[in-house]
Predict the structure.
Amino acid sequence: MGTPEIVWSCIALVISIASFVVAAYFYQWVKKLPVANARMEEVGKLIRDGAFTFLKREYRILGIFSAVVVVLIVLFFPEPIWHGNAGKNIQMAIVYLFGTALSGLAGYVGISIATLSNVRSATAAQESIQKSFMAGFRGGAVMGMAVVGTSLAGAAIVYLISGDPEIVMAFSFGASSLALFAKAGGGIFTKTADIAADLTGKVELGIPEDDPRNPAVIADNVGDNVGDVAGMGADLFDSNVAAMAATIVIAAAIGQIDFMFAITSMGLLASIIGVFLSRLGPNGSPSRALNGGTYITCGIFAVLTLIVTLIAKFDIRLWVCAMLGMVAGVVIGITSDFFTGDDKKPVAKVAESCQNGPAFTILNGFSYGLLSCLPALIGIGLTALISYKLGEAIGPGYAMMGISTAAIGMLSIIGMIISNDAYGPIVDNARGVAEMAGLGDHVLEITDELDAAGNTAKAITKGFSIGAAGLTVISLLGAFLELVNQALTEAGQAAINAFDVMNPMVFFGILVGAAVPAVFSAMLMNGVNRNSQVMVKEIHRQFNSIPGLREGKTKPDYAKCIDISTRGAIRELIPAGLFAIIMTLAVGFIGGPEAIGGFLTGNIVTGLLLALLMSNAGGLWDNAKKFVESGNFGGKGSEAHKAAVIGDTVGDPFKDTAGPSINTQITVVSLVSSLAATLFVRFHLF
């Protein structure tokens, strides 16, 4: 029968295969849906071709980056090749490539289905909101099932073949490094187009959001796919793999790897059941349907894992830790919904302040964004604290296992979370396609309602993913300490029990680590700023030089705007990611493991704060704009509307570029630290 961890690894593989079958079924279900007319086919093809063109160019650059990293891993990680450890270095390089390949596949699958289901969701809106919702949601479910199935199967395969937790960390680093650049690049692309399209279209020219006369409108729709679908898919793939990798490192020392695979397997099974049960009733709300599916999945997960815990005789306190993580994820999602929901008080207040000009829009939205950080950070902190104490009560070595279990508990229903998240950009695209194809006001009303629910779902997902990243990187900090102590023991030095903030080396690391997320965010947002200005000039050029464009008698040059977004994103995506990685290595080689312990602590704290602030403030400004556009405070074209658009313009790179990229940044630096732990022990200046 084999050891329990082997048995549960195999069960994880079987359930992963089941998720692939479900993804294939939903893919074919969506693909068979009709498309309304030739114009929709044309628009859909423009979006699809633009998305894949960007993805190919981005992956070509990332392929070169990955090749360089492979060489560095072979030469130096986990220790220099001339120390006689070539075999392990080569294994880690191969597994790193495996992680990058699967992360890239997650993005490819997402774009493949999203660019099919957008036009089909728009077509279905001609019949009913229920059919349109199902086309969007099942399109998103393809992404959810494929991403989680791939991440779980990948971790199980790597562990089954290697049996070495450190090699699993290399697999996670592969996923994280590609996700970091994919999320950053996709975010820069999408916000370059979105900001330019909004400022020139809505504010300057007074034309609708997805008016086909706007040269940036196709690039904007392409951006929804490369940023919110491919980028977020890679991000959540990375979070899931990182949580499993950290748990494997910690659990290996206490013989609890089987529990990790049991929990993650049941989470995927619960998500499979949940996506089949999700429906929109005849008089139902899309937002309630999405949230209802999440709550149902949580309930199924709780029951399945309790049964498994009792049958397999796992410690019930570990199950409680997993439930704490899941509940914390839901609470963080509810908090995000409160601050960003289109029917909630903060959005209405910010929309009201738009009547007094953009300065008040920015001040009000930023203040609510700051307020939104408190409940989420308290939730993450309390979950980590209680889980730590529960684990500590079990026995030696279980304290950090409690936190890592909470992390995988929070990520357990990620299949449903990704399905909801991918639904957002799909129905957003559906709205744009419907307007460009001239499907009429009734279809636009339906797609607007679906889009509003999608915005809220995306905000909840971002809050959830930030919370999951928080618990995951605390687990990775524990994994780093475990690997450092192994290296110290091998070197005949005393182990480190904790990182003392009164130690000047640790404090040095805290200060540097705290600055990295801020600089990283600034680099990404400056990239959006530079590229948006280039695109605004191009839009002005087209309106001024193409005869009949303003009157709608001539088509704009969509391809030129797509090319501007693509070239700008490719140019900007590498420096920010390299900055975070290089700073991590620099601190490690200057101050050693203790400085890195402080560096990771500072990076986690400011990273979570900035990610929550930017994600929630950005979502709030977006829905405040939609609140005005729905007819409140003067409606479209009013001074309040112009102020709201400016607020949304500031919020765009907050919520879709920098904010969600920070999740991956803090994961990447944690994994780099773990992979280089032996080097930091052996080679540092002080």
Remarks:
- Residues 558-629 form the longest helix (72 residues).
